Amino acid sequence: MTNRRRVVITGLGAVTPVGNSAREAWENVCAGRSGIGPITRFDTTGHQTTIAGEVKNFDALAFVDKKWLRRLDLFIIYALAASDMAMADAALTGDTAGGDRAGTIIGSAIGGLSSMETAKEAFDRGGPRKISPFALPAALGNLAAGHVSIRYSLRGPINCTTTACSAGNHAIGDSYRIIAGGWADVMLAGGAEAAVTPLGIGGFNVMRAMSLRNDEPERASRPFDRDRDGFVISEGCGLVVLEEMNRALDRGARIYAEIVGYGSTADAFHLAAPPPGHAGAARCMREAIRDAGLRPEDIDYINAHGTSTPINDAYETAAVKDVFGEHSRKIAISSTKSMTGHMLGATGGVEAIFTAKAVEEGILPPTINLDNPDPECDLDYVPHRARRQEIRVALSSTFGFGGANAVIVLRKFVP
Amino acid sequence: MTLEEKVINIIMEQLGVTREECVPEAAFIEDLGADSLDLVELIMEMEENFGITIADNELEKIRTIQDAIAFLKSKGVS
Q1: Any idea where the domains of chain A sit in the sequence?
Q2: Rounded Cα distance, B32 and B12, in Å
Q3: Which of B14, B32, B36, B44 to mutate to test the interface with A (most CBs of A within 10 A)?
Q4: pLDDT exceeds 60 at position A159
Q5: CA pair distance A131, A300, nearest whole angstrom
Q6: What is the CATH number of domain A262-411?
Q7: CATH homologous superfamily of A8-250
Q8: pLDDT by residue (tens digit) across A190-212?
Q9: Which of the residues B39, B41, B45, B56 would you substitute to probe the A interface, choosing the one with the greatest number of A C-beta atoms within 10 Å?
Q10: For this structure, is A170 an active site residue?
Q11: Does B29 contact A at CB distance below 8 Å?
């Protein structure tokens, strides 16, 4: 595309199972620390899976006042917390973010599942009049972006992507295009999720999608390993501040990386299973690289979707080989989900942060628990330990239910 | 605990206001910063606590804290 404006990342904010700030989460994934443990949020009696990546030691009152605490679903509170951190990191406030020229897209796979469960309990106990008037506003997926827009006077584009596990990447990719095309100058984008609830756990269990390795929580998420048995659900929020490059340079902002391409494609095949072969994921990666005006050989690193399900990791590996051919042997690939678990709609946001940091610092986070690689997964997954390596260009991939694929391309920033 | 104290505790909890702000004449919307959804939830909380039902057409009589207390007394709550 000609005349496309350049877009850079100037702020990071995160709440994750491996740390309640972008910096802490990044340090912990580089140290190979798992954030997975037994579920403490509710009584798991009767559930097959009893482990998850819960956010820990999170002080919600540092981000919302007491009156609002009961009225916001946890995914919204995570989003408000991450937005405070991302905006502070970018040195922006409600007055300087851009007002009419600033917007926000925050994706969520499910929205306020816990609030829906609570409302249904009240309904079952006392009928329709016992439903809290705040039940639906807490459950609506777009209310993370809604509350964030109110807090920072973001009066430009607003949206909520709900493309399951790709929601965070779609939010960032769509925001990138909005700035590149001139419709806004600043976008706060990413994903938020809080689905570690009885329905979330039970629902994914009956789909046979989740790991049952309850006795070894920290070893349960093992992408590309022979003994992987499903994903580990987790929660949190990752938001990045995207900003038109000249605006960022003019105000002397710290620039983590440049976003240079975005692929958004549908499998148009099945609600949960990938299409035969590996066409869906491969086409999305190709599209992102083409959009960036690059060749496959230009890519040094991929933050993989790498969910630790038997199907995904072999499928994704085959797709990488298809897109990159011989070069696939030279690309470093890691799945940070081996440590964070799968944050569903938030995962794209958090992994964009990790990818930006990898590009900025030249450090590749590892794939932990990769003790015995699946014979079908025979690429360089940066096993066990982080590695120092210069990165020029990186992909961050997400593939979601509904056949929704989103891949973003980040490049080391050079003015 | 007197009825007044019970009502004020509920208001403090629901609206996130201080005891000092909860003077009898304080109006929920104008003085205590409540919006229409806050009021619905406040009424639900009073129904729950005092075991009564407040009809929608009775709501307009309840504008201030003393209105609420007077209304509850008229319903036989003490």
Answers
A1: 8-250, 262-411
A2: 10
A3: B44
A4: yes
A5: 52
A6: 3.40.47.10
A7: Thiolase/Chalcone synthase (3.40.47.10)
A8: 999 999 999 999 999 999 999 99
A9: B41
A10: no
A11: no
